[in-house]
Structures are given as C-alpha cells and as structure tokens.
Design brief:
474 residues; alpha/beta; seven-stranded mixed beta sheet; five-stranded mixed beta sheet; 15 helices; 13% strand; globular
Length: 474
C-alpha cells in the first residue's frame, strides 16, 4: 500500500467513526452517507478517492448544520415566556443563552490540577472569548486590589493588540513585548501570552524560561493564554504547578474553538474560556457566576443555533482534538521540512521545527504549528500577487486541490497572502495544510518545492510569463 493509500485509509476510518458516533442525530441521512462510503469509488485513482472522501465529510457537515437550522427556524431571538414559553428554550434573550451542555462538556475535558479550581464557558468566537477573559481579569484585579491593572502582551495576532487598545481605558497602562525577558521586565499585573506567536517567524514562548524568571522577579497577578494555534498542546499543567505558590491568583485559557476543535468541518464559530483560580489566594469577586455574567453582558454567548450544530460526539472531545491537532501538526511539519537548506525563492520558511538550534527550541517551547509562513526576499505586494497567480495556475494544471482562503485546521489545504499592516503593504504567504494526507498534500509539497527551486521572482516571471497577478481585497 502506498503512502497516499495509507493516508486515505486513515481518513476513511476517521470518517466512518464520525458517522457511527453521530448516527442518532439523523438516522436516515447518516445511514445513506455510510452506505455511500461503503460502496466507495468505482474506478478512478487516489485523487478520485481523496475527493470522494472529502465530499462525504461535507455530507456529514451538511447533516449537522441543517439539523441545527431546523431546530432554530421557528424560534425568536427573544422567545415568549410564562405560559407561552417553549419548554425547550432556556433563555430570555439569545445573546445570553447559557449553553450549559457545552459549558459542562468543556469542563469535563479539563483534568483536575491540584491547588486550582476551574470554571469555564463557551463563547460566540475566539475574539469574544478573549474579550470576556480580559474583562473578567480586569474586574477581578480591581475588586481584589482597588486599582486598575497594567497589561503586557507577548503575542502578535493583530486583532488581540487592537482589542487591548480598545479596552485600554480599563488599564493603568499596556505594552506589547517582543520576548520573554521584555515580558518579565514589564512587571505587569495581567499578561497575555500566545504559546506560538502569530508573527512572521512563528516564534514560540519558552514557558520554562518564563516561569524561572517569574520565580526570581515575581509572577503577575493574572495570566491569560491564547493557544488557538495549539489547543491541548501547550504546557498548561506545568504552568499551573509552578504558579501555585506565587502571587498569581488567576490563570485563564481563552481561545478559538472553531479551528481545531471541529475536526476541520467549521460547523459554527465558537470560543472557549477556562478560568483557573488559585486555591491559596482569595479574591473579592472570584465566582463562576461572574464569568457567566460577563459573557451575558458582553453579548458573547454561543448562539443557540451554533450550540445545536456543535452538540455532537467530537466537539470539545479531548480524544478527537488530540487526533486532529496531531494530524494537522504532522502535515505542516512535513511541509516545512520539505524545503531544502539551499537558498531559494522563499527567504524564510517559518515554522517551529525549522528554528535554529538554541532559538526557541527549549523543552518549554511548543514545537508545532498549524501552518507555515513563507516570505519572499522582496516583500512588495505585486510580487505576492504574481506568485499567487502562479500557484493558482500550477495547482489547476497539476490537479492539486489547494484552496485560496483564510484560517487553518481544515481537512483539506489552504493558502493565503496576508498584509498585516496596510500602511506599508508588506506581505507574507501562509500555507496551511489540513488533517488529510494523500495526493493533494503531496502535490502541495511538490508545487512549493518546485517554486522554491526557481530561486527568484524574476525566474518565476520568466517561467510563467502569461500568468496574471491575483487581485487582493485590502
């Protein structure tokens, strides 16, 4: 059996498990999908088999999303109450719907950590989760200390910095740091950390270095971690253990639950907030109801339609998340390692596994990422537009399934060009391989390897003189 055939057999096995575990959600339609899967592809090659499996995953996605649509189609955002109430509706306003089942499932997947008490809520998105976390940490700090907190960010996702700036009147000060040493030296009351930073080089945070420095200089009052790129794969337990006997009262995990918690199907936007309270410390308002109330007041609750779509066997399942994260991480590592060490078209191939020895390679650093960042020597916008045109033309010519689009963690593969700062129009290219191995993944690796071997954009233009640049919406 070829490597591609082995990868597709794994994809088929996972799909059948998904169907079997969720068969009761829609018996007839799931049975039809299962029968179609059993019948398989008549003739064809591995590419046909791969597309067949992809379509069956989309069939399952359609069942789960349409089931959610049917359950909500007659409901009002402000449902009737009293004698006219629907007994299946447990909220007065949709924006504050409790999502108790999924809140409970979130916490069921959180193992107990000695010395810490945890509570958690689901939110409407990852940014909503981060907003709830920041508001909650600020409120708790003020209640316990009688003043506004200072904030420090060790992370680079542009919307996170924008959110902190929008909330800056609630802080005494805030700063964005470029390294662990800068974060420690900031001596902020509340710190926000991305284990794998969403910057051009995907720098990682060394938690061993960080906690050792805090042991000497003093830990912050609250730590917020956004592991949206690496859920379940950052050293949370070690962090909590090292902070137990410090001044840290609260550690919060706030992340997207859209990317890697839904086996690549993107059924509905969602975010997760888990608050860990230090049992050795007391705070004036430390109470699970405070967290739920913050979610409600901020309008950050998970919409009922989303909650319905996500009420399945795999969402928030540690087992399914571990499997999906591992597959996505493996495929993106293979892509990042595929580039030769010789100088080529891409000046940098940024991924944690490509970090030089001694740089971000400590045991305390996360070594995975769900995508690779590629940069040309010349970061001008036109060069990337031409390159995107070449990628599209070559993917079509070679029959490689590679979508142009944002985000990561799907079953299939994507790429996009990002312009982080519109004022200077400097660009980067993000390639996000999905969970599925097989001919499409091999084709993506071969395509980018061939482009890299051309060496320069001048060579690319000579090789593909008729390709038109892709128009980008800035």
């Amino acid at each position: 059996m070829t490597g591609g055939a082995t990868a597709l057999e794994l994809e088929r096995t996972l799909l059948q498990q998904l169907i079997d575990e969720n068969a009761l959600l829609d018996r007839a339609r799931m049975a039809r999908i299962s029968q179609t899967l059993a019948d398989g592809v008549i003739g064809g090659d591995e590419r046909d088999h791969e597309r067949f499996l992809h379509d069956r995953f989309l069939d399952v996605r359609h069942v789960l999303r349409s089931r959610a649509d049917r359950s909500m189609i007659d409901r009002f955002a402000s449902p009737a109450s009293g004698r006219d109430a629907d007994p299946e509706v447990d909220y007065g306003y949709e924006r504050s719907a409790p999502s108790a089942v999924l809140d409970g499932r979130l916490m069921h997947g959180e193992p107990d950590v000695a010395g810490w008490t945890a509570s958690g809520v689901m939110c409407s998105s990852g940014m909503a989760a981060l907003s709830v976390a920041l508001h909650f940490a600020t409120y708790e700090f003020r209640a316990a200390n009688g003043r506004l907190p200072s904030i420090a960010l060790l992370g680079d996702y542009f919307e996170t910095a924008m959110l902190i700036e929008l909330l800056s009147t609630s802080f005494s000060s805030w700063s964005q740091c470029g390294s662990v040493s800068e974060l420690v030296d900031a001596r902020a009351d509340v710190v926000v950390i991305e284990p794998v930073r969403y910057d051009w080089d995907l720098h990682t945070v060394d938690f061993i270095e960080l906690t050792a420095a805090w042991a000497v200089q003093g830990a912050p009052w609250s730590v917020i971690v956004d592991p949206s790129l690496t859920p379940g794969a950052w050293p949370k337990h070690q962090l909590l253990a090292t902070l137990t006997e410090t001044r840290t009262a609260i550690v919060i995990e706030a992340r997207s639950a859209l990317k890697l918690d839904q086996v690549g199907l993107e059924l509905a936007n969602a975010g997760a907030v888990v608050v860990h309270r230090n049992d050795l410390l007391t705070t004036a308002a430390s109470d699970p109801d405070t967290l739920r109330n913050a979610r409600s007041v901020l309008g950050a609750a998970l919409p009922p339609r989303s909650a319905s779509a996500l009420d399945n066997s795999f969402f928030l399942s540690p087992r399914w998340r571990r499997t999906h994260v591992a597959l996505v991480a493996r495929n993106n590592e293979a892509f990042a390692r595929s580039f030769s060490d010789e100088r080529g078209l891409f000046e940098t191939v940024a991924h944690p596994v490509n970090r030089q020895r001694g740089v971000d390679d400590s045991e305390g650093s996360v070594r995975i990422a769900p995508f690779t960042v590629l940069r040309l020597e010349d970061d001008d916008l036109l060069g990337y537009r031409v390159l995107l045109g070449v990628i599209r033309a070559e993917a079509d010519r070679r029959g490689v399934d590679l979508q142009f689009g944002a985000s990561f963690g799907f079953r299939s593969h994507r790429h996009e060009t990002i312009v982080p700062r519109k004022r200077d129009l400097r660009c980067l290219l993000k390639v996000a391989l999905g969970a599925r191995g097989g001919p499409a993944m091999d084709g993506v690796i071969d395509l980018f390897g061939d482009l890299h071997a051309l060496g320069t954009m001048d060579a690319v233009r000579r090789q593909f003189p008729d390709v038109r640049p892709i128009e980008l919406a800035l």
